[in-house]
Design goal:
- It is built from 27 helices and 25 strands.
- By secondary structure, it is an alpha/beta fold.
- A six-stranded mixed beta sheet has the order 19-22-23-17-24-25, sandwiched between helices. Strands 16-15-18 form a three-stranded antiparallel beta sheet, with helices on one face.
- A hairpin with a 7-residue loop joins strand 20 and strand 21.
- Helix 21 runs antiparallel to helix 22.
- It is globular, with a radius of gyration of 32 Å.
Length: about 700
Amino acid sequence: VQVLPREEETASEAQEILFSARYSCPHCGYNLTELEPRLFSFNNPAGACPDCDGLGARQFFDPDRVIHDETLSLAAGAISGWDRRNAFYFQMLNCLAEHYGFDVEKPFRRLSKKVRDIILYGSGKEKINFSYLRAHGRRPRRRTHTFEGVIPNMERRYRDSESNTIREELARYLNTQSCESCQGSRLKTGARHVFVGDQPVHRLTAMPIESSLDFFESLSLPGHRGEIGERIIREISERLRFLVNVGLEYLTLDRTAETLSGGEAQRIRLASQIGSGLVGVMYILDEPSIGLHQRDNQRLLDTLFHLRDLGNTVVVVEHDEEAIRSADHIVDLGPGAGVHGGRIVAEGSLSQVLEAPESVTSQYLCGTQRIDVPDQRTENDPDRQLMITGAAGNNLDHLDISIPVGLLTCVTGVSGSGKSTLINNTLYPAMARHLHGGREPPAAHEGIAGLDQFDKVIDIDQSPIGRTPRSNPATYTGLFTPIRELFAGTPEARARGYKVGRFSFNVRGGRCETCQGDGLIKVEMHFLPDIYVPCDTCQGRRYNRETLDIRYKGRTIHEVLEMTVAEAGEFFDAIPVIKRKLDTLLAVGLGYIRLGQSATTLSGGEAQRIKLSRELSKRPTGRTLYILDEPTTGLHFHDIRQLLGVLHRLRDQGNTVVVIEHNLDVIKTADWVIDLGPEGGQRGGQLVGTGTPETLAQNSKSYTGQFLKDLL
């Protein structure tokens, strides 16, 4: 288009302006396809980055993980699987050493960078004479070819292998890095250059939800764009506000689902239901308060009340006292757990439940039973500290934190304040590397002092103790070995020549071969979850008839496995090695579970307490660091009381216990508290306060301290 000057502006020259009917730049020729929703979706080929397929990250074999210990030599195992125990690969390294003139007995870190790179990444086009050993003393086979390299070898085997075992083994050496093409945004170049206001879409999703809400509430588009976008902006703002109302303002919209806790994922689904506006629906929630600070509890309850007021029915499985007191109708099951429970002991309004004498819940709500503040706390010794300096992972603001050695320390703070980053992502991986040769790299930090005060670090989480029916509390805690030895020592077993292995359901001989000792047969349901049915041959008893003929004090090995921990405690009262392990299970409140109970039927809290009991049964060194992340998840007041007894017992043995927790009953009984915040996400990651619970309760900046004040 040529723009001509007006008659009175004859002095000026004609001006040429270029327009395009397409989304293209008239100067450089860059062309963008028509803007459609799919262009901004990383799940659609139209919008996904072609290099990472919309994942935003790429997996690679990390040299830091491949090199097991650079202080060791190649022969001694600097690279796992390539030492002298693996004749094939070690022979290749010997030939490589002969060609390049280095010593396989020399520590890996003292080899030249060129040699280290050749070992890891290959010899390129340079060919090397290799000699391969052959069986039965035959002459070695000689070949001349390039050296593939350890990492390319792993990449090829991981890519081509059809064996899940090999792939799982190699996956230990994988790490992830941000995609170089899209810088982690997951989108194609074109989509990354479309702006809403002054922000591209990938930056909007990288904002914390609270910041994203502020952006859209203040967004003003001119002219017809404002008219078109008004309803869309209002809808986005409402949905973001729902997420804020359930306590998730610290999350970013691009947070991957696999990194969310169970409570966070559940509250996201809850927010989506509020947005749908449905009525006449029954919502069932299992502990929605998991991972939620007391400050945010009321917002969650208000959300549940809103769902109820719309005309829905809301059923919540919950142990939180505030949620129980706020309910319209309460159903209390019990009176105990496992075989001692399963009955309704109280039902009705709060006042009706409080009058039920058999209800343990009622006793804690009334105050007839309670978790007391300790009369005296263990003193903090300034000379025995574990110092983390410059912690800067995720949202941590270069924190310097001191954790007292030999104390029970609680790490607190609102959701998203950086607790897990500090302990699970920084402290634990760093200590695991130092003490056990762990491979997981810690989050960014300057250093950790005081590691030499510990001989091991143990993370006791709520993951299952096993993933198949074959795993059970007896095998996990080491109880089963002395029990099998007892059966093998009976006169009948000795007369038949039965050894200890005869009474194991994991090996041939004494087990039922139809179900291979599972007692159950797996039935594959294809598109549905697999189901397990009792074995027709052994009727679920795991062993063959000959093994079940052997009895100890009138009981078969199967009948012993069917005993509860409490029953077994009486049965084996005269056997100290067994009784001691059973006593630790009783101490953590698991007297109701069966010795042979399948690991797949245990809750997360039960699995965690079984792990604690195993630690209690070990000979204490007094130099162990125990880390627990929200151990009260899924636990009743009475269970929490027993858990605290175990944690204090570990501390009294001289160990250090660090607990990430929101539960005020745990916090008030701790020796020391580290409170992070003040908020979540980018407004968190700072040290708000540290000291005894009484000290924190006087800190006006601490949300945790404000709630603690009423309990101390």
